[in-house]
Amino acid sequence: MSDFTFNNEQSCEDDSDPSSLLMDSALSKILSEISQVTETQVIDITEILGRVLAQDIIAEINVPAAANSAMDGYAILSGDIPGDERNELKIIGTSWAGKPYTAEVHCGQCVRIMTGGVLPHETDTVVMQENVQLKGDSIIIDARAVKGDNVRPIGEDFCKGDTIIQANTRLSAAHIGVIASLGIRTVEVFRKLKVAYFLTGDELRSIGEVLKPGQIYDSNSYTLAGMLTNPAIDVHKLGIIPDDKQTTRDALENAAATADIVITTGGVSVGEADYVRDALEALGKVSLWKVAMKPGRPLAFGKVVNAAFFGLPGNPVSAMVTFYQFVLPAINKAMGIKDTTTLSFKVVSLSFLKKRPGRVEYQRGILSRDNSGELVVSNTGGQGSGILSSMANANCFIILPLESDGVSPGETVEVQPFYGLM
Ligand code: AMP
Ligand code: MG
Which of 127, 152, 177 delimits the end of a domain? Predict the structure, then answer.
């Protein structure tokens, strides 16, 4: 069952094609059909980096638990801050981080305090040691001090009962630190997403094999493995499948039996040896799309048994572009992440960017700063869908809208940094 009929007359070099699906509709259709993993597991804090939180993290203590000093200095009572004179205060003890000063402090007294040291009873202000004058066992302070200076109040980071991290968040190093500061050892996360992939093409050989005429090394295996490297994904690589009807069907059936998401590259265009479409039609629900994008117009999406299926184009750049634009948001949704939007913004292009209207183009760009410190972008040169070095040399996509007929240097373009992509 195809959502959009494939027009065999249409070559990928034509730009305007009324039967092509727009990027936004393709993505929202995909996301609406992706279901989220629901099973969870409780794991140790040392294992949670990059995993997706399945519970809210709620503070059971105040952090910090007591007001403490942000500086090395002297804890004083704010009532002792002089008007425009100076005041002498007697040092009666020391509050170290981890070793508080517990006796009372009265007017005219102060306590030496180290960063992280708990503020002694009644004191509410810390004067930096650089701003006092030592005189025997006293200090002299002036009118510069302000009540509350250099004090980290109780609960400054978070208060007991606060929701600190919401469920459906991907856990970063900072999140782990927050969880540790709350004294929490185990956390409930969604189980890992199971992603299986295979490559189609008679011409493909693995590294180590000798190439005969017409054969090429399979690189999509490696770019896919790289893009799928993620603590929240279990990757199952199924290897290279020849262009054969039955083998392609068997491979797809096998992959779909255990995976949440199955990805293939190649075999989705209108060529004689493109069997992925056929396998999908035999085994599941197919949407074979032409998406109004470049590179990457042919794209198959569907469902096989319980697995979502992505048939990416074989061209190495097309495979990467379609992965980032469609598969990555789908993976993020499936693993439980709430916000699947990617960061993009506008900068000035230094390059002339050639384009014909009719498709959204994902040119490969290099984002840098010009002499005045402004962010600017240039493209990586040749933009053919087989030129993988254009991806390797890039640090962003330059997204040129459907109707654009090219860009002159000095014009503004939308860029999507590879930041956050692998
Ligand atoms: P296809 O989508 O199968 O028509 O393939 C389009 C182009 O991508 C052809 O030039 C293929 O040789 C090439 N290609 C397909 N799969 C791979 C792969 N795994 N690694 C590198 N190139 C590939
Ligand atoms: Mg092929």
Answer: 152
